[in-house]
Design a protein that fits this description.
single chain; 312 residues; alpha/beta; DNA polymerase, domain 1; 2 domains; seven-stranded mixed beta sheet; 13 helices; 14% strand; binds S-adenosylmethionine
Length: 312
């Protein structure tokens, strides 16, 4: 197991297996984080393999830079960018095609542990920020204090799949009449006021997840990036995606299915109008999950789901 003190990479052996690494080929790690997976890829793809590393978080780029110094600089590039601009990055590097793309979605342990980023509901006094990149203008604090009740309820339902969405949104609206909701602790107190029972930890997690997804526009970026990743793969190249919740996994599953089927017309269309052709062949008929041993060593891996496919 490769560890870098920043983030322990999840399902690293499976990532290496499904990327089918070969020397002299170029890979992309679209979510480099602390460089755990990128380091493993560089170790395994021979002396002439290269990795293009992207992350939208400048702190992650710096951490990856430190972790990857043990490899020759000529073998990797570190680029701070949203992965929804993947094609643009490749065109800037004059590398139109790659042989594998990895997405390890969500936030890293490092981001969660940095209290001032506000990703965790365990850091009581942390400001409600949740931005993965400083260029994002609207923070979780802004959303919670400035959105209408229906808008907040919609975010909690859509991105948290939370049953008590409206009740929590209304409680937020009441609470902020007295004073703004500034910290994770302030928000947690409001949630606790209107929900109870054994599910309360899950409710808190769902509300924080929903705000994080909205702040970072995570699902739209993923949809855009998956298309770009497939289009930049050489024939035989691999796409590997690790997701951590059902909303992400559903997008990946449906996307792979559509790219394998070719036609993306709605099922009730009498004949094909999209003229789509098969672009992917799915390699993971069954979801790949971490073994019990990995989950014991790294509790963050417990919700990981890996899917992989090959470019036709
Ligand atoms: C789970 S961590 C990746 C950890 C990494 N695989 C490692 O081994 O250290 C996810 C990373 O993806 C980045 N990220 C999430 N959404 C992104 C996006 N749309 N564009 C670029 N990076 C993104 C986050 O900033 C975070 O650093």
């Amino acid at each position: 197991m490769i560890e870098n003190g920043f983030h322990q990479p999840v399902l690293v052996d499976k990532v290496i297996e499904f990327l089918n690494l070969e020397t002299g080929k170029v890979y992309m790690d679209a979510t480099v984080g602390g460089g755990g997976h990128a380091g493993a890829i560089l170790s395994e793809c021979g002396p002439f393999g290269e990795v293009i590393c992207i992350d939208r978080d400048p702190h992650a780029i710096e951490a990856a830079r430190k972790w990857l110094t043990r490899f020759p600089e000529s073998r990797y590039q570190l680029i701070q960018r949203n992965f929804s601009h993947l094609t643009e990055v490749l065109s800037e590097l004059q590398t139109p095609r790659v042989d594998g793309v990895l997405f390890d979605l969500g936030v890293s342990s490092f981001q969660i542990n940095e209290a001032e980023r506000g990703f965790s509901f365990d850091n009581d006094g942390a400001p409600l920020d949740m931005r993965m990149s400083p260029s994002i203008e609207v923070t979780a604090r802004d959303l919670v204090n400035d959105s209408g009740t229906s808008e907040l309820a919609h975010i909690f339902r859509k991105y948290g799949e939370e049953n008590h969405s409206y009740k929590i949104a209304r409680a937020i609206e009441q609470a902020r009449k007295t004073r703004p909701i500034e910290t994770s602790g302030d928000l947690i107190k409001v949630i606790e006021r209107v929900t109870s029972g054994t599910d309360i930890v899950k409710t808190k997690a769902r509300i924080f997840q929903a705000l994080r997804i909205q702040v970072n526009n995570e699902l739209d970026a993923l949809k855009v990036a998956l298309k770009q990743a497939v289009d930049c793969l050489n024939p035989g190249g691999r796409i590997v995606v690790i997701s951590y919740h059902s909303l992400e996994d559903r997008i990946v599953k449906n996307f792979f299915r559509d790219m394998e089927r070719g036609c993306t017309c709605p099922p009730d269309f009498p004949y094909c109008v999209c003229n789509g052709t098969q672009k992917l062949s799915i390699l993971t008929r069954k979801l790949v999950r971490p073994a019990a041993k990995e989950i014991k060593q790294n509790s963050r891996s417990r919700s990981a789901k890996l899917r992989a496919a090959k470019r036709i």
